[in-house]
Each structure stands twice: as structure tokens, then as C-alpha cells.
Amino acid sequence: MSNQEGRAPVLGDASADDCSCLSIAPLGEDESVELARLFKALGDPVRLRLLSMIATRGGGEVCVCELTPAFDLSQPTISHHLKLLREAGLIAAERRGTWVYYRVLPEATDRLAAVLARPEASEGGRK
Amino acid sequence: MSNQEGRAPVLGDASADDCSCLSIAPLGEDESVELARLFKALGDPVRLRLLSMIATRGGGEVCVCELTPAFDLSQPTISHHLKLLREAGLIAAERRGTWVYYRVLPEATDRLAAVLARPEASEGGRK
């Protein structure tokens, strides 16, 4: 996989008029592989909490030194989880001096939210 | 975990006025564990395609005998993936005679879509 500046390719456009909900048409093989990689990156509680801690900053950056103290885990372990989030294209990383700073790439989570959305749910048809 | 009729507990209500987006407030430990279990179930291309094939039926049921021919995989392998989706609370299963029939439980994917949503994205603030 070729990353440019630590950023994976965005999986298509998630514009409002381009519903790619999995409940509208069966997912193709290639799309399923791409999406599964993203979902798998979210399939760990530590990575989910890390992503959430970074995402709550909006477009702002978070130093890894601010993330590690929230966990009973070593900094290498935290860095490994952050690497997996970065490789999935969910966050971007930039090293400045001693520390690495992370920010969210919301296009990836937007894409997953669009895939999971149900058209009828947004029209009040939620069961 | 106690399942009733093959259905996992729904992770809270996903009502419109109860935003649980991960970009609003950091996820707690318990919620992260629950959500990660769901995301992990989606972190496989075969399971994603199976879920999509079932979800495109709306509230309808799909016989496992209709799902298996779409894959170059044995029926036991397909059944294993379906079991993981069921244990995660994403689908429900009912055996009738020879076959097992599956239907989606949209509350689970609704919950994940809500967690991934960004309030600003729905207001046209998508970057």
C-alpha cells in the first residue's frame, strides 16, 4: 500500500447523493476488502478510544504524549495501535522534534458511516 | 454474554437527540469494548458481503442456501461467518426445517453509524 504523508486513499466520495449503503445493494468484493480493513482497524477498544480522543479535538492535533497517560499500556503499545489507525487511513501523523502529533482524517469515518446508514432511518423509519 | 433468541443486547438507544459520536466526547472503556466487538465483526470482507446481502432484503429473510453460492467457500465456512455476525448482534437466525434463515438487526448498524457520524458533516461542513 502506498501512503503519501501517512494518508491512505479515501474510499470514493461520500457525497449526499451517492448512497453506498450496504442495505441498498450488495457490496462488491473489492469494496468489501477495503471497507473490512477499516472496520478491522476499529475492532479494538484501545484503538477506538484513541481515535475518539483524537477526534474530539476536531481538526486539531494531539501529541502522543497526551494520549499515553490515559491507558495502562506502554508507549510502544499505544504507538503500535496508532500506527494501525494511521495505516488504515483513519488518522495522520506528523513528527515534530521528540513527539509525534496525530489528527483525524474524517473522510474515512464518513465513508464508513455512509456505508452503515439506512436511507429509511434518516427519514424517521427507525424501528 | 447472554443472548436471547440469538440476539445480542442493543448498545443503548440511537435516538436523534442522543448523539454518541466519537468526535463529541471520548468513548469510555466499557462502551469501547462493546463497540469494538461490533466493528471487529465487520472487519472481514466475507462477513461484510454476507451482511450486505442480507440487509438488501430489508426486513426480509434470506436462506443460507441463497448466500453460499455467491462465495468460493464451503457452507461450514459461510455458516461460521454468519455465526460471528449473529453473536455480534448484527443479524438474527431462525432454523426452519433443513435451512437457517437470516435477517438483519438494524439497531446495531444504526448504533455504529451514529458513533461514526460527525454533527458538522450533516450540516454541510464536510471537508
UniProtKB/TrEMBL annotation, chains A, B:
Keywords: DNA-binding, Transcription, Transcription regulation. One of its GO terms (molecular function) is DNA-binding transcription factor activity. Gene3D superfamilies: Winged helix-like DNA-binding domain superfamily/Winged helix DNA-binding domain. Coiled coil: none annotated. Residues 27-123 form the HTH arsR-type domain. The lineage of its organism: Bacteria, Bacillati, Actinomycetota, Actinomycetes, Streptosporangiales. PROSITE patterns: HTH_ARSR_2. The keyword Protein biosynthesis does not apply. The keyword Lipid biosynthesis does not apply. This is Transcriptional regulator. InterPro entries: ArsR-like_HTH, HTH_ArsR_DNA-bd_dom, HTH_MetalResp_TranReg, WH-like_DNA-bd_sf, WH_DNA-bd_sf. It comes from Nocardiopsis kunsanensis. Pfam families: HTH_5.
